[in-house]
Amino acid sequence: MAYANSPILIDETEGIKTYCSCGESARKSYCDGSHSVKGTGKTPTEFVVNEARKLAICDCGKSGKSPICDGAHSKL
């Protein structure tokens, strides 16, 4: 998997978002369907953003609050 050891910081807009959870998306932090093409066995994480704000999206695959980073990458 193409995970990184740090979160992806984004200025997110309001709405329903579909974030990559397999680490293979070319559009990280968003899902591009790579999980299906590459047969990762993972599915994207749907998340509702209620207001525009800065988010730290997990890119290590270990967050207990997925898709939001909880600092798990620093414990790897």
Description:
The protein has 76 residues and is mainly beta. 5% of the residues lie in helices and 26% in strands. The chain has one helix at residues 34-37, and strands spanning 8-12, 15-19, 45-49, 53-57. The protein has a two-stranded antiparallel sheet with strand order 1-4. The longest helix has 4 residues, at 34-37. The protein is globular. The mean pLDDT is 93.
SSE pattern: EEHEE
Percent strand equals 25-35%
Ranges where pLDDT stays below 50 over 5 or more residues in a row are none
Give a count of the beta strands, DSSP E runs of length 2 or more.
Answer: 4
Helical fraction: under 10%
* Overall spatial form: globular
Instruction: Compute the separation of the termini in Å.
Output: 15 Å
Order of neighbouring strands in the sheet with most strands: 1-4
- The gyration radius over C-alpha positions equals 12 Å
Number of helices: 1
Major sheet: 2 strands, antiparallel
Which structural class fits the helix and strand makeup? Answer: mainly beta
- Mean pLDDT metric: 93
